[in-house]
Structures are given as structure tokens and as C-alpha cells.
Amino acid sequence: MLVFAAPCFGASQGPNSPGTAADDAVVGTESWANPNNSKVSDGIYATTVLNNYRANTRDKYVQIVKSDGSIGSANKAASDYWVYRTDTYASYGGPADLWGESWDADKINDADFGVVISAYSIKEDYAENITHYLRATNFGFSIPAGATINGIFAEVEKQRGGGGSSETIYIDHVRMTVYYTEATPPVTRLRNSTWRNATIR
User: Greatest CA span in the chain, whole angstroms?
Assistant: First the structure.
């Protein structure tokens, strides 16, 4: 019996949008109004107000949400300021980034899998003004059983505004893409081990 391994090809699903979005007060002090508005890119926003005088909103936390609902330890927050009054997708992770976790298809497909985002500004007294998490989950992935998860890519469409002694910040859309290699069983080929006698004339 000869066994030949069939080729495995990389695949991806997404970008998928969340089925659930919520304000989560695990961190920060400023709540997100209308978090469900982050499920679709349509110019209707989840918002919060940061009381500051420096117009300096940046990411505080961008972390994965695991299938048990807990938050992963890796923080992908970027150090640059949010773009002023222009919707811009910021990118986190990538095709070969597992966010410091071990994954299988069931964990990715779970309704609790997702991502959280929190932002902050520095007030005049130099204290950090931090938002709650915006928790986006239930992305509807259907990764095939046995697949190897290669990477997770999250994108957040966001902007910051102005306004006197405070700044309203906006999230329009959260989306995720998962990269994986599907498990393929080996192809089995049988070689006839019985040789017939031939009569040579």
C-alpha cells in the first residue's frame, strides 16, 4: 500500500461583521452609546465622549475575545492618534498572527469569539480618560473541523471629532478575517501485489 499526502491549501473566511456588539464596563469609565451601530459600515456610529483638552485619542486596548468569553492577554493597540473626522479602517493582527493564543475551528466558530476595543485620551491633569470596551462577538465563522488556524485579522472603522473641552469618538464598523489551512486526509492508492504468470511463446 502506498500513501500519498494530498496537498493542503491556505484559505480564509471574512471579513465578517459581528452579530453582537455591546458596551462592556470591565475597563474604563466612559460608556459606548449605541454599540450595535458598529455592526455595519453605514455612517451610523457607536460613540463615546472623552473629556479632554488635547484632542489626542488613541487606542488603549485591542484584544481578542476567546470562546469562553475571556479576554486574551495580547494587546494590539496602535500608538498613533485616531484620524480626525474621516472614517478610517485600522488594522490589527494578520494572516500569521494568533494573538498569543492556541486556536481550533470550534473556538473560532463559537459565538463568544471576537474582539474588544477601548480608547483613551490624556486630560490636562495628565490623567488617562479611558473608554469601556466595545465588545464585538458572534462573527458567524464556519471554519472546517480539523483546520489549522494560521492568523486572525481585525479591522476597526473609526474616527475622532472635536468640540471644545471634549472629544466625541466614533466607531462605524468592526470586522474580522480568519486565515486557516484545511485538513485534508491522505490519498491512498493500492498497488496490486499479485503477479500473474505469463506464458511466453
Answer: 105
Domain count, the chain: 1
Residue 200 maps to a domain: no
Its pTM stands at 0.87
Tell me, yes or no, whether 199 lies in a domain: no
The Cα 189–Cα 197 span in angstroms is 24
- Answer yes or no: is 195 within a domain: no
Task: State the sign of the Cα–Cα–Cα–Cα dihedral 44, 46, 50, 56.
Answer: negative
* CA 22/CA 31 separation, integer angstroms: 10
Q: pLDDT digits over 96-154, tens only?
A: 999 999 999 999 999 999 999 999 998 877 889 999 999 999 999 999 999 999 999 99
Instruction: Establish if 190 belongs to a structural domain.
Output: no
**How close are the terminal C-alpha atoms of the chain, in Å?**
33
